[in-house]
Design a protein that fits this description.
By secondary structure, the protein is an alpha+beta fold. Helix content is 22%, strand content 20%. The chain has one domain. A four-stranded mixed beta sheet has the order 1-2-3-4, with no helix packed on it. It is elongated.
Amino acid sequence: MSNKRLACAVTLLTLVFLCPLSVEAQTKPVSLEWFSWSIFRLTSPTGKVILINPFVTNPDSPVKVEDFPKVDVILVADGHADEVSARPI
């Protein structure tokens, strides 16, 4: 067997044994919740929480910090001051 064929065979066997041939389906869907304005919460099947555009420091906001006991990532799409707790200039 040539070196090239041997290398191909080793690569193929490595891929077969190290990479799964089938992908298991998610057991739970991603959850998407809308709270108000552009405030959304995504929850992954593993429980990771992404909060999008949280207007939590805006006095007119219907939701507050206490409404989100667990957040792993906060995504601020437009950077308004009331979303990032910055004081307006």
